[in-house]
Amino acid sequence: MTSQGPISRRGLLRAGAALASVSLLSPMRTAWADTSGSPLRLRAAAGTAGLRSAPYGSTDIWGYDGIVPGPEIRVRQGDRIRVMAENGLDEETTIHWHGIRTPNAMDGVPHLTQAPIPVGGEFLYAFDAPDAGTFWYHPHQRSFEQVGRGLYGPLIVEEANPIRVDRDLTWMLDDWRMTEDGQLADDFGSRHDAMHGGRIGNTVTINGKIPERIAVRSGERLRLRLINAANARIFGLDFGDLEPVIVAMDGQPVAPHAPRDGIVVIGPAMRLDLVLDLTGRPDAVETVTDVFYDGLEYRLVDLAYDPDMLRASVPDWSMVLPPNPLAEPDVAAAARHRIVFNGGMMGQMMMGDAMGSMMGQMRQGNMWFINGVAATGHIMDPLLTLPLGSSQIFEMDNRTAWPHPIHLHGHSFRVIARNGQPTRHREWQDTVLMAPEERVEIAFVADNPGDWMFHCHILEHQAAGMMGVIRVDSGTTKT
């Protein structure tokens, strides 16, 4: 039976119970981009995947090159990336290169930066990779369904001088709303999901599989690249007795530090690079648990130690990543803009004329608002127009009862304050998770000309209005 409405506690916990059914986590297919010859080809098409084991069989999905996730694309910092996207779907699509500071024409937003790729058509994406780090790719056309059905993959840009580790692993985290017969529930874009916390699934995967355990060795050091590809689920990972260290956020290096309260929190579309020292004894098992939702904790995966130790003590190698070439905003001289997010169930509403306008838009099916305006598509008047090269501060106010991962295309920004208090690490991000009723300040240099999407990355919220355009005006930007 197709799942409708909110997912029950039993349904959410099914993810944990299902973990015992599959053995070791399989590595993803890696595609090294040919920077001088033919472009890498990525074909979006319907297919099947073994998300769950017997007796469920295969699940109908949409994937790049027939797999979920799509191929892990690896390049080196400064390389030219050339990808020919082929549309084998029965609807239009695009590819957005999430977190990469591409030229505007390569950003993959339908009708705003390019015409959507028609059925049977193709589009050549070509851009340089200015920043090293962990990024990903996914459609921006009907993303609540296309991403939700499996169209995404990792994009790793390697540093010229990376930190030393024993293994470099990528975990693409996702959840799937599955029916009793092991197929995807077909209620994409439901009104209930849009008005509440988005489409939360009942089956959680790493790299398209429900893993039981991952083999590790005592004394080993991992670089663990986490990518949250879920439509709406926030993960809060507890690594037990291990002590993960965050070394990059959204691809950008940060001063190495422990996560708050030891829990690694990662919202939709966000990435975190961890250094993880495996300090358990040989033959031990360390459980990684997702504890973000109170009362709905489940076992994500076990780290199973080999009988043979790699080394007796933790290596003393540096965890500091080299910085990327980001322009530093002049916070003292920056222009300030207030941005208010409203809407959804149980949220605050604006007063006066703004409230009347929002109520009218809600009657038309729009449920989320930025400064009182709900997007009805990718074409709209700019929310803000910023001079090219100027320093900017967005004072963002989440007046809703729900968290929102807010993503700005084409730029990285410093998170400089939360609820009026300076942040400790002033981390660079492109997607910042805002808690309900939280105020967050971000600062950046508007140095990439064009019209850029600015939206919530809970994909049902985006589709229901929480999306706007930020114009960076070079004097030649379209009007």
Automatic annotation (TrEMBL):
Gene Ontology molecular function terms on file: copper ion binding; oxidoreductase activity
Is Translocase among the key words of this record? Answer: no
The signal peptide, as residue positions, is 1-33
Q: Name one Pfam family in it.
A: Cu-oxidase
Which residues fall in a coiled-coil region?
none
- A GO cellular component annotation in the UniProt record: outer membrane-bounded periplasmic space
Q: Which UniProt keywords apply?
A: Metal-binding, Oxidoreductase, Signal
Kindly give the PROSITE patterns that the UniProt entry links to this protein. MULTICOPPER_OXIDASE1, MULTICOPPER_OXIDASE2, TAT
Tell me where in this chain the Plastocyanin-like domain is found: 58-160, 168-276, 361-474
Q: Which InterPro entries did the record assign?
A: Cu-oxidase-like_N, Cu-oxidase_2nd, Cu-oxidase_C, Cu-oxidase_fam, Cu_oxidase_CS, Cu_oxidase_Cu_BS, Cupredoxin, TAT_signal
Specify the protein name.
Answer: FtsP/CotA-like multicopper oxidase with cupredoxin domain
Organism whose genome encodes this protein: Palleronia aestuarii
